[in-house]
Each structure stands twice: as structure tokens, then as C-alpha cells.
Amino acid sequence: MGFFKDKIIMNNKKTIFWKKIKRVLEQIVITIIWAIWLILILLPLIWPYAILLWIFAPMIWLLIKIVCNQKLRHYGKDNIIVFGGKRKGKGLIFQHLINGVEKGLSNIPYGNNVTTVPLYDYFESIAPNTFEDMINGTIKKCKKVEAWEGVPYFLDDSALYLPSTEDSRLKAKYKSLPLFITAQGHLYDSYTVVNTQNIERLYKTIRELQMDGYIKAKETIGKGYISRHIPILRKYFIVKWRFYENIESAKNGLVPFSHLGITQRVTDPLYKTTASALKEQYEGQNGIITDGLLFIRRKDIYYDTRYYETVFFENINHEKVHMEKATRRKEKKRVNSKNGKENTTERITEEDKTA
User: Fold this and answer.
1) What is the pLDDT of residue 338?
2) Tally of domains in the chain
3) What single DSSP character describes residue 141?
4) CA angle at 301 for the pair 158 and 58, rounded to the nearest 5°
5) 199 touches 86 (CB < 8 A)
6) Looking at residue 120, what is its pLDDT?
7) Which domain does 120 fall in, by range?
8) 295 and 330 part of one domain
9) If DSSP codes are grouped into helix, strand and coil, which group holds residue 277?
10) Helix (H/G/I), strand (E/B), else coil: 213
11) Which residues of 155-181 are buried (b: 16+ CB within 10 A; e: fewer)?
12) Which residue in 81, 94, 71 sits closest to 290, CA to CA?
């Protein structure tokens, strides 16, 4: 047992050592970046023509942001599904799309321009009408909610409400939902944007009826220590995303035509004409696939990543809980950095006593 104890202590010492080395290197990088930033600020005092840099650089940065963000909003103004793994940027894409509309509806709070409306109240608002009533001509008149006219609905964490494991029960119980989604454009001149980690985990009816496109959140830049401490980028999150027109392309993770290797493009017997024709054939088979970037300011993010904590647990003061957790994390980090060896030894001793 003593051998394993020494081994664990040694491994923890190595981990603490390399963490300290990493933090020192990060601080060096941050210092160098800030030094370069300061030089650029003072450069016009030495070389007057450098003022042109401060005139055109912000314009170029602003133009890049506008073009990239507008591209995402172009694809996000339809019935689409935003998907991707944890911490990949789904919520950031959602927030950006919501910030781009004057008013919105959602199942959770997303800012002052969003009204929270439960799923049942919205998607079953034309109940008891179904596709059968459409065929038989037996539609029952319902009262229209004028406040929803032209207002899109943003369905967040959809797999918590409409999971694929409940397909049969959802289909049997909420019979008006498929008809509402199909006719949403006619009923309210609006659309629905859905958010989920995995397309396959989503209610089949939603997957099949959200036919306008699928946006995959690939990666978020700005979560690291360096990104949070350097000029300009410390105020932003940057999300890499990919748009798919077809669901099969999204499921299979296909790449845009421009990302295909030259060898693959030339040797495939299907492709025998010019580059533009090759692209046309590729997109004809797989739909439009394109990549993009999202630049979103940290201060423009309003959603709560721990919202469901207040849904399931009573007497939760969210702001107080988060402040306490942040304080505990800082204190734990400080104690571990100063007393790493002592803490490790005490923990092993306690484990030995338990054993």
C-alpha cells in the first residue's frame, strides 16, 4: 500500500509542477502580447504614418465581424436545428440568432427581447386539429395569439423535452404538434430554431419537419486562460460552425467541397468536368455545406447555463449559488497551489483509514 501511496504523491507532484510551468508560459505569452499592443499604441508618436493602422485596422475587424455574423443569421432565419457536443458553442449560436431578432419566443429565458412560452402552449395551440382533420375537412377553429405573429420560437435543450426515446408516446399524446410545425409559416409567419447535442437524440417528427437546414457548432475559441487576458479577444467568444442543407450530410459529418483533397476530386470517376461543375455535382448530391465564424461579445450573452438547476430544485437563489461556487473555486485553487503536497497526503491518509 505504501508503494501506491508514494506513486500517487509523485504523480500529483508532477501534475502540480507541469501546471505551474504551463501557467508561467501562459503569463509570458500574455505579457508579450500586451507589450506588442502597447508598442502599437505608441507607434504613431514615433512614426506618424502608423496612425493609418489605427484607422483601417478597426474598420477591417468590424467588416470581418459583420460579414461573418451576417452569414450565420442568413442561414438561421429558417426552421433549423443547431447541434454539437458540450461546450462547443450551441448556446452562443442560439444567443446570436436571438439577438438578431426584435422579438422572440423561447422555452427558457434568453434576454429582454424574449418571452418565455411553454412548449405545450405554443406547439399545441391549434389542438385538437391533426393531419386527419386536414384530410377530412373537419378543422376546429382556434383563437390566434396576435402577439406571436412574425415572432420566431427558439427551442433550447430540446432533447430534455422531446427525446427520441419517447417517439411513440410523444406522437400519441401531442397530435397537433406535427401539423403546427408544418403550417407555422402560414399560421404565424414565423419559424422555429431547435437546439440539441445530437440530432439522433431528437424526436423524429422534429428531425423530419425541421427541413431548412442544420448548423453544427464545431468549436468555441475564447474559453482558455490566454484568450481571456489578451486585448480585443478577451471581450469576445469566437465559434466555428458548419451549415448543412441535408440531414444525412449532417449525420455523416461531411465537409464542404473546398475541403476535399485534390486527389479525391480528380480521381473520383463521378467528377469529370471543371471545378465549378464538380462543386455543383457535389452539392447536388449532398446539399449546401459551408463553414463560418461567429463573433459574439461576452456582454451580449444573457442565457443561464445552469437554468435547469432552478427548474428541478426548490429554494435556489441562482445568483447567490453561483457567487458561492466561484468563491469556493478560487479558494480551492489558492489552497491547492500553496499546499498541494499537504492536501494530497491528507487525502491519501483519509483513503487509507477508510480502506
Assistant:
1) 58
2) 2
3) P
4) 130
5) no
6) 94
7) 76-245+288-304
8) no
9) helix
10) strand
11) bbbbbebbebeeeeebeeebbbbbbbb
12) 71
67 in a domain, yes or no? Answer: no
Instruction: Report the alpha-carbon distance of residue 324 to residue 67 in Å, rounded.
Output: 40
Q: Report yes or no on whether pTM surpasses 0.85.
A: no
Q: Do the domain assignments include residue 279?
A: no
In which element (H, E) is residue 321 found?
helix 318-338
> CA 16, 17, 20, 24: dihedral to nearest 10 degrees?
-170
Residue type, 237: F
Grid cell, residue 214, equals 442544420
Please, what are the averages of pLDDT over each run of 10 residues along the chain (355 residues)?
58 78 90 92 88 90 94 92 91 93 91 89 95 94 94 93 92 93 94 92 86 92 88 92 94 89 51 69 91 94 83 71 57 58 42 40
Distance CA 147, CA 188 (A): 10
Residues with Cβ within 8 Å of 347's Cβ and at least 6 positions away in sequence, in order, are none
Residue 67, Cβ neighbours under 10 Å: how many? 11
Q: What is the pLDDT of residue 330?
A: 59
Dist CA 249 CA 211 (whole Å)? 13
DSSP 202: B
